[in-house]
Amino acid sequence: MSNALPTRVLAGVTVPDTPLITKAIEFARSVSDDFTYNHVMRSWLFGQFMCDATPDLKDHDVELHAITAILHDLGWPKSTVTGSDIVTKDKRFEVDGANAAREFLIREGNKEHWDKRRLQLAWDTIALHTTPSIGMYKEKEVGCCGIGITADFLGPEKAFGGVLTRQVWDGIVKEYPRLDFRNGVKKALCGLCIEKPETTYDNFVAQFGVLFVDGYSLEGKTMVDIWRAAED
User: pTM to 2 decimals?
Assistant: First the structure.
């Protein structure tokens, strides 16, 4: 743990312990179903452990990392996240989540500690969490959040840096069970394709719509379609 903040041990991982992180956990718990809540908590813990074990990532804003990991899926569909003021009809789920997290920080955070740049970094971290080909080349906090989330999909053996052990993984999963993880992810992403398909056509969520959602179609909506319609 590189930052001079109070710490505690959670599921075997040493994590920062601030009032704002506690409020973020409470907020995520209040609006998320069990599956989503467990996923975001695991994502934080995996990421914190891996960053502490990776010299190039150890020195980062651990409070920002914690809060963005905990709040990164606030934009999942209403079947998994409650709160009509969070999930919009016209924005990608990453943007909804980033907006909600920024509003949380403005509302609950100390204005002296959360200036415009730090708020923007928190927004970027959540908005880019599904785009590692960009996120990993931004500030460390974006990458730290992203690798923790990705680890929850890949498992310890394939996670970033080869530092996440099965023992650590099992300890975190024991505290925050996976609860039929693959089906939960499918439900959430298909929910986006059903509830607001226009926000999915240009990104990976569309793959779930094509495979699993009756009536979902990318016809006329791909980049190739746009290219074909362009004037020479």
Answer: 0.95
Cα dihedral: 132, 134, 136, 139 (round 10) = -140
81 DSSP assignment: B
229, burial (CB in 10 Å: exposed 0-12, middle 13-18, buried 19+): exposed
Token pair in block for residue 58: 């150890």
User: Tell me, what's the pLDDT at 2?
Assistant: 46
Angstrom distance (rounded) from CA 94 to CA 83: 16
Selection from 191, 177, 183, 214 nearest residue 80 by Cα: 191
Q: How far is CA 26 from the centre of its chain?
A: 16
Q: Residue 120: CA atoms inside 13 Å, Cβ hemisphere, count?
A: 5
What is each CA distance from 169 to 42, 180, 224, in whole angstroms? 9, 16, 41
